[in-house]
């Protein structure tokens, strides 16, 4: 038994040293497959083709849409009971299987709370779009549950989280520095997703969802490869998409920090036995610090004041950077990219073979109209992009500020923002439910 534990520990140490390189290679592979997706020529289009701007799901009958909302409510309620009251890890696993089957393969990942962020952004900044009530409910209900009970949506209801939770067999923690860098990516993803959706340019969350292709079995092979790579990485780095990409997770993180009730590691008073200290693969267990030597009060106070004063500096810097990037970001819009392709063709004198350009020439629309649309959209990006930079700057400042705030803890507690309420820590606590 001792030899087996020793071998397992040696394996974890070796994996901890090599995993940063695995993650780095995975990210390189991701960018490679996304590049490959646009390298190959698009299929032939008929005359009059209109370039799609958003990846909208097919509409269902209203009754079925509200049935999905009812299933969401029921699944969240049952998951909350299993996590907070029943404290059943096995029950949460079965909820993940159900959610994967229903919201994943049966409903093909649409509509989901993660993608609904874009619907809300599009509705807020475009008078011509009215968000379906079902999409708004899918956006709001998990956030309300997070505000009341923590991230129970992640625990067993989200199909994207469920497919990863079921493949996490050998969890190994990443070094804290790499974890901190990768954890900033969802904030950038959220800012870009809202920016592109609000300017009616593209739904990037849906377009680059790594698991939709697996759920539907008809996505570009590059995205299916990306999904498989994430699942393979998830064997060792649990829930890589949830932790390092999911934009909706940013909102759940914030709401969950103010949860009225939250999953606890122990059902009774913590005895500080330390058995749960290293078990969480998400580094979401805050240890007791009652025995640690604390700094002089003046030092963290000075850091707090410094980081607080840096927040507006970060916000202004982020706004300036994104304002500069606005013309490049506007290229995501199909009309802008089409106008630039036509302008490049005229300047170079080389006729473009792009199917989108050919379709435009057959549509009867004038170049003057297209260039006017390009100017309007680019101007809209110049006005909107700085706000994305402000959001990222403030997020960075608040993140740094939070590092200076410490409260004395006499027991082991879950980090309410990072904790996925998965229940992995239950079996390591010697105190059982009476």
Query: What percent of residues are in strands?
Result: under 5%
Secondary-structure element order, N to C: HHHHHHHHHHHHHHEHHHHE
- Helix % is 55-70%
Overall 3D form: globular
Describe the strand arrangement of the main beta sheet, using strand numbers.
1-2
Give me the secondary-structure category: mainly alpha
Main pleated sheet = 2 strands, antiparallel
Q: In whole angstroms, how far apart are the ends?
A: 30 Å
How many separate domains make up the residues?
Answer: 2
| Tally of alpha and pi helices | 18
Low-confidence stretches: 30-57
Could you give the count of β-strands? 2
Describe the structure.
With 434 residues, the protein is an all-alpha fold. It folds into two domains: 9-35 and 57-277 and 415-428, no CATH class; 298-401, no CATH class. It is built from 18 helices and two strands. It has helices at 2-39, 62-86, 89-106, 113-125, 133-149, 152-156, 159-165, 176-182, 185-198, 204-207, 212-216, 221-234, 240-244, 248-256, 298-330, 334-348, 355-363, 367-402; strands at residues 285-286, 413-414. A two-stranded antiparallel sheet has the order 1-2. Helix 4 (113-125) crosses helix 5, helix 9 (185-198) runs antiparallel to helix 18 and helix 15 (298-330) runs antiparallel to helix 18. The longest helix has 38 residues, at 2-39. The chain is globular. The model is unreliable at 30-57 (pLDDT under 50).
């Amino acid at each position: 038994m001792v030899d087996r534990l020793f071998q397992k520990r040696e394996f974890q140490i070796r994996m901890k040293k090599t995993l940063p390189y695995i993650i780095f290679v995975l990210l390189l592979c991701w960018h490679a497959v996304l590049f490959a997706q646009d390298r190959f020529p698009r299929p032939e289009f008929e005359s009059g083709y209109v370039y799609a701007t958003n990846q909208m799901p097919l509409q269902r009958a209203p009754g079925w849409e509200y049935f999905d909302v009812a299933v969401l409510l029921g699944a969240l309620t049952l998951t909350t009971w299993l996590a907070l009251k029943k404290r059943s890890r096995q029950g949460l696993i079965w909820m993940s299987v159900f959610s994967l089957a229903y919201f994943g393969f049966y409903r093909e990942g649409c509509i989901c709370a993660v993608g609904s962020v874009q619907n809300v952004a599009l509705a807020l900044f475009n008078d011509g779009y009215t968000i379906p009530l079902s999409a708004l409910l899918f956006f709001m209900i998990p956030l309300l549950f997070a505000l009341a009970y923590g991230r129970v949506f992640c625990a067993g209801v989200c199909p994207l989280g469920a497919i990863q939770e079921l493949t996490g067999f050998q969890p190994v923690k990443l070094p804290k520095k790499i974890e901190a860098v990768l954890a900033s990516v969802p904030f950038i993803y959220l800012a870009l997703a809202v920016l592109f959706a609000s300017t009616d340019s593209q739904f990037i969350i849906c377009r680059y969802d790594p698991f939709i292709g697996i759920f539907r079995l008809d996505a570009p092979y590059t995205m299916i490869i990306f999904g498989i790579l994430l699942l393979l990485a998830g064997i060792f780095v649990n829930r890589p998409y949830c932790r390092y990409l999911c934009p909706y997770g940013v909102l759940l993180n914030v709401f969950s920090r103010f949860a009225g009730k939250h999953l606890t590691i122990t059902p009774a008073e913590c005895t500080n036995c330390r058995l749960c200290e290293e078990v969480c693969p998400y580094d979401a267990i805050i240890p007791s610090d009652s025995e640690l030597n604390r700094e002089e009060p003046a030092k963290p106070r000075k850091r707090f004041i410094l980081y607080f004063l840096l927040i507006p500096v970060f916000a202004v810097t982020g706004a300036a950077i994104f304002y500069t990037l606005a013309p490049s970001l506007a290229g995501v819009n199909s009309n802008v990219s089409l106008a630039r392709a036509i302008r490049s063709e005229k300047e170079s004198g080389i006729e473009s073979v792009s199917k989108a350009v050919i379709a435009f020439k057959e549509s009867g629309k004038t170049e003057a109209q297209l260039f006017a649309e390009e100017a309007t959209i680019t101007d809209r990006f110049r006005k909107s992009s700085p706000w994305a930079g402000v959001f990222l700057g403030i997020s960075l400042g608040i993140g740094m500020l939070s590092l200076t705030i410490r409260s004395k803890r006499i027991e082991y507690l879950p980090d309410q923002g990072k904790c996925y309420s998965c229940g992995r820590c239950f079996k390591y606590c010697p105190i059982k439910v009476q």
